[in-house]
Structure formats: structure tokens, C-alpha cells
Amino acid sequence: MSNRHKILHIISSWESGVGNELAELVARLPRDEFECEICVLAGSIRRNILGVPITTLHTRWSFDPSTYFGVSRLLRRFRPDIVHAWDATAQLYGTIHGGTQRVLTEKRKQNNPHPNPLPQREGTLFSYLDRKTHRFIVPRQNRSLPVAKTTIIPPAAIPMPCVDPIPAEELLEKMGFPMVEPSGNYYPVFQSQYEPAHRNYKPIPSTQTPFLIGVILPLCSEHNILDVLWVFETLSHVHLNFHAFVIGDGMSREQFLRYRDYWKLFFRAHFLGHRHDTHRLLPHFDVLLHLSPSAEYSGTILSAMSCGVPVIALETMESREYVADGTTGILIPDKGDFRFCRRTATKRLLYLLENEKLRQSMQIAARNRIAKEFNFDAAVQQRIGVYRELLR
User: Fold this and answer.
1) What is the mean pLDDT of residues 259-280?
2) Please, are residues 333 and 218 in contact by the beta-carbon 8 Å criterion?
3) pLDDT more than 70, % of the chain
4) Do the beta carbons of residue 8 and residue 24 sit within 8 Å?
5) 111 in Cβ contact with 145 (< 8 Å)
6) Which three-class secondary structure state does DSSP give residue 349?
């Protein structure tokens, strides 16, 4: 009979911002001490982790009775010592069942940032779930949770394999995207607000190697994908030679494709869907553009920095913690005005693409900061310590 302790990991979908983190953690846990299974509540994406059974339940609603009974059957069969819930939906299905298992929940978000409080029923439900949870893992201090049940584990960058960058033309040819020459000479003064003092006064020739801009987010309006497309339309208007890779999927995909076609970005903005080889594409990007205010997907910023890719991100609590403005990336103030966000993102993106020396210095600074402050192996050891403490 095995003496290994059993851990059941529950996650809403692989497309969530912590899917890659869960996969890396499970792969690094000592197999002689822990036996793991993963329960994915929804999503059509399938992943394989060597030696780890994965159950997908195909949840259809916010609370699906079939998913409830599916988790219940899994708990009776596997009999885990610890249930590790990786998001709020996973906490709902993992905590609502009774039993002897200890419940551990990842809390990435602070209190509700919107002025309107949660509905009374929903607030009561999550208060009940928090009371049944034995331990919380938070990236920073959270005053809404009891201190005795809270463990602070700083965010960490998921390790990326070393990939030698290849020329942009070769990558585009390999992926089947045609090379498109700009229709005119590059001239970035597209608005009177563009400050000439921020330019290096070196016009980018039309024969310049295409710039590769990455966006890794679900295709939902809450992640400001429409603002990203507006930025790309402006770059096309000033005849910048670039290609943008939008990695992710979502319910609003068709809507964004219509905007892309309306703005004539067919050969500039490429929607790649959800991909498992993102880690192979990421090192080839010149810039990662991240305009989402969501804390759940801010780990993409750390992944880009670990590959030495400069980041232009919307200023949030998380991005301020990750990005040293002007050193490892550039932050855009969040003033709640989408017009300001679009104009500022375009200006700073042009400024960064024009300045090659600045991009090179940001690449080195980003890698150094990740190695010193956001080490993934340290985060894994801290979670193993939490498991052992709960088992005691």
C-alpha cells in the first residue's frame, strides 16, 4: 500500500491564467511523497502531464449540478488528503463537499475593486466557502482573510526553455504568414500630441526587419482587446513594418475578427487561438503588449520578462510590482479613459520600437530581476511546505 499523500488539484480551465503554473508545479512535486490528480471543470483544451491522471467535467453554467456530482464521485474514488483549488470557481466545487480532506485555495484577487458590492447571496456564499477553507495562498497581504489561515507566496515566473531567436522573416515563413511591405514611408507623427522629443530622430526604413508584437490574453472585452486592435490600426496607418500575434481564445473571438477585417489588419494581426507552444513563440517577440486590468492573467508579464521580452502593460497593483517602469518595461497609467489608454499605448510602443538600445537594456534588466525576485523553484518549495503543514 502506498504511503504517499494524495492531492487533488481543481482548476476552472487550462485557459485560465494559472493553468501553466499548475502544470509546472505538479511536474516538480516529489513523486515519492505526493500522488496527484487534476480535475479541470471546463474547456476543450487537453493537456498531458506524465503520470498524472486528468479529469475534464465540461461545466456549462456557473453552478452545474453535473459538475457537482462529478467532483463528488472523484472525491469518493481518489480520497485526497488535500484539495487544492486554483481559482474561485474551483473553490466553490472543491469546498462545498464535506469530508476529511483539507482545502487549500489560491486567492489571486483582493477585495472587489468595483464600487458596487457583491450581491448579498453571492457574498454570503463565498463567506461560507472561506470558513470551510483551511488555508489560503495569496501573493501579497490580504486584509479580508484571517491572518492565521493565510500564507503569502510571492508570484513567480514560470520557467521557460531556452530557445534561440530566429529572424522574423524565417518565423513568419515557418508559420505560413506572408511578408507584407509597408505601403509608404514610416512617419510616426500621427497626432499633435506625439512628442518629437521622445523620438531618436532615426527614421525606420521600410526594409527594416518586421517587428513582432505579442498579445497573450483571452479574447474577451474585459481584457481591452479592442484597444489593442486600435493600437495596431494606428501602427499600420503610420506605415510601421510589424506583425502582431494574438494568442488566446474566447467568446468574443468573432467580434474581434470583424474589427480586424474592418480596420484592414488581415496581414498584420494574426489570431492564433490557444496554443501549447506559447513558450516557443514568446522569446521571438520584440514587445509584449498587455493592456488587461485583470490580476488573474498578470503572470504573462513575468513569463515575458523571464524570456527577456520588454513589456508595455497597463498600470495595476500587479504590474507595478513586476515591472520597473523605464527599466524592465513601460507602464501605462490607468485613468479609466480608453482614449487616453489607446493614445498612450501607441506612443510608448512606437518609442520603444524606435529605440533599439533601450530594448536591449530592458531585456537584460528583465532577466536579472526575474532570477533575483520571482524564482519559481522557491515558490514550489513554499507550496510543498504548506502541504506538509496541512498534513500535520
Assistant:
1) 89
2) no
3) 89
4) no
5) no
6) helix
- Grid cell, residue 12, equals 476552472
CA distance 390 to 22: 19
Judge whether 5-156+375-391 and 168-373 match in fold: yes
Q: How many CA atoms lie within 13 A of 335 on its CB side?
A: 11
Please say if the pLDDT value at position 351 is more than 90.
no
Place of cell 457583491: 118
The answer, yes or no, to whether residue 130 has pLDDT greater than 90, is no
CATH topology of domain 168-373: Rossmann fold (3.40.50)
Pick from 177, 336, 192: nearest CA to 267: 177
Look up residue 344 and give its amino acid: T
Question: What pTM did the predictor assign?
Answer: 0.80
Looking at residue 166, what is its pLDDT?
83
* Contact between 239 and 211 (Cβ < 8 Å): no
Q: What is the DSSP-derived secondary structure letter of residue 334? A: -
| More confidently predicted of 116 and 365 | 365
Name the burial class of residue 377, with classes exposed (0-12), middle (13-18) and buried (19+) by CB atoms within 10 angstroms of its CB: exposed
Residue-wise pLDDT for 221-235, tens only, equals 889 999 999 999 999
pLDDT tens track for 131-148: 889 999 998 888 888 888
CATH number 3.30.70.1520 is the correct assignment for the domain at 5-156+375-391: no
Q: Is 257 left (phi over 0), alpha (psi -120 to 50) or beta?
A: alpha
For the chain, the structural domain boundaries read 5-156+375-391, 168-373
pLDDT digits (tens, 9 = 90+) for 161-202: 667 778 888 899 888 898 888 777 776 655 444 454 444 445
- Locate the DSSP E strands across the chain: 5-11, 34-40, 54-56, 82-85, 102-106, 135-138, 150-152, 211-216, 242-247, 269-273, 287-290, 311-314, 329-332
At 263, list the grid cell.
480596420
DSSP 183: S
Cα–Cα separations (whole angstroms), residue 168 to 27, 212, 259: 32, 7, 25
